[in-house]
Amino acid sequence: MLLFQDLAQNTSDEMLSEEKTLSVIDLIFNGGTGSVIIITVLFIMLGVALYIYFERLLAVNAASKIDKNFMNQIRDYVTSGKLDAAKILCTQTDSPVARLTEKGISRIGKPLDDINTAIENAGTLEVYKLEKNVSVLATVAGAAPMIGFLGTVIGMILAFHEMASSGGQAEMGSLASGIYTAMTTTVAGLIVGIIAYVGYNHLVNRTDKVVHKMEANAVEFLDLLNEPL
């Protein structure tokens, strides 16, 4: 008799545990059309954010790579008057530093202020290229949590509308189900926003390092032109 009671109790516990099991897919697709649309939009935003992050990260990493002997070779060519060889070296070296140096070499013979201005203008263009589409990450980081919260608010409105329509006789189970399903949009929005925010700040830091390297090489090139021949 006790054995049958234990089996019945175990079966009841298993049924309760199964009833309490909740999958992410169920949360998404049981939240109604509005919840599905908002979750889909958030997933699309996440895909765009990840694509931009990795694409820009590869571009920034490529821009940060430059031969340590590059400026030494430029120095040797410039001091010996081999400006064409210096330009060829810059052309063969695909990096922002090389393009800035080439712009400065093409202005040799003009006042230093003109050379400096040309390098600064070229540097502004290179920074713009490095920061291409990075602002989209900042937009996703700010918009995703708000979109998620919008889905939660819509879900809460629908839940309370159901309560009002039933004259206050709505089942608590259905209300609770609608509420925690609506909350998933906020969770999804926060996850997408956090990923985009971290990616944006990481790219900004990496880009700043490349910009500092560009500035240091520009200063070194101008100092080279100021050296007595």
TrEMBL record:
The keyword NAD appears for this protein = no
Specify the domain of life of the species encoding this protein: Bacteria
- What subcellular locations does the record give? Cell membrane; Membrane
Q: Which residues form the MotA/TolQ/ExbB proton channel domain?
A: 93-215
Using the record for this protein, list the coiled-coil segments as residue ranges, or answer none: none
Pfam family, any one:
MotA_ExbB
Keyword Cell membrane (UniProt):
yes
Q: How does it sit in the membrane?
A: Multi-pass membrane protein
Sorted alphabetically, the keyword list is:
Cell membrane, Membrane, Protein transport, Transmembrane, Transmembrane helix, Transport
Signal peptide range in chain numbering: none
Q: Which InterPro entries match?
A: ExbB/TolQ_transport, MotA_ExbB_proton_chnl
Q: Which GO terms describe its biological process?
A: protein import
Give me the segments passing through the membrane. Answer: 27-54, 136-159, 179-200
Provide the Gene Ontology terms for cellular component.
plasma membrane
Family assignment?
Belongs to the exbB/tolQ family.
Q: What is this protein called?
A: Biopolymer transporter ExbB
Lineage here is: Bacteria, Pseudomonadati, Bacteroidota, Flavobacteriia, Flavobacteriales
